[in-house]
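Q&A log
Question type: sequence-to-structure
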Amino acid sequence: MGVLDFLPGKEKPSEHATNRPAGSTSSVAPPPADLDAPPAYHSIGGPAIKTSAAHDAAAAYNHIQQGDNEDPAIWSCRGCGVTNAPVRYKCILCRSFSLCFECHKNTTEHHTKHAPHNFALVTSAEGIWGCDGCGTRDAPLRAKCRSCSDSDLCLDCFTGRGVANVHPAHPREEDFTWALYSDAVWECEGCGSKNGDLAFKCRSCRDLCLCPKCFGSVEKHHKLHSSQSDYMPVISLNRWWKCESCGTPQEKLIEKKRAAVRWDCKHCENDSLCSKCFEKVEKKHKKHPRPEDFAAVLYLDMYVE
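Response status: OK
Response body:
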């Protein structure tokens, strides 16, 4: 099934798929400890070591190996405070620093400790949420209350039982926003990119999606529905990938415990690096050798405890 419109009152979709700053090396007293940084950060020199792709990748890898991240199902945005928003970006060098989609637009405003490229879009094999109406876990379509920090409803509760009955505190349909978890293929209407980990789907059109970059200028790409409020995020699940440098496929990376973070080149379609290869990004991807040329994707269900 494609990334289609499941919202109440819409036509039933067809079954056919569409598509750190540098530290001082002098003998002066070191700066205060970075309490948000992972243990690996301190063990290899902390703020006294100059930021590099190798350092960041190694710290992120060790951090994940230690399994000291926050509960994957419960988190709050350190920018605005919203809890358990569908779209989440996590700093892979911090134990518990995440931002929602809106706050991630201005990463440096909310997080000055680490460079923006260290924020990873969070995904998993399942949606990692629960319906407050019936207790169903990880349903594909999720309605989130705009006013409550952590109130979500599945489609059955929202339409079958009625939102006013299930969530009387905020009984109107417009009090909720929608998100879809899907493994369907899709293509951006704006730039033609395909099957990214995050899309924004027009709620009024049967099958129109935009990538995050094009969504930032939605009025240019879809004039009929030009307000961002007309769209819902689609979080892709179960995307298969392999490292373009070492050629290791996802299943082997999982066996080697190297599949928790995927680094995608922002300029090359479907060019991804595993964490080990990203440590030597200047050699492994000479066409775009800078760390900031890559976007990280974090798989919560592949953490190694």
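Response note: The radius of gyration is 20 Å.
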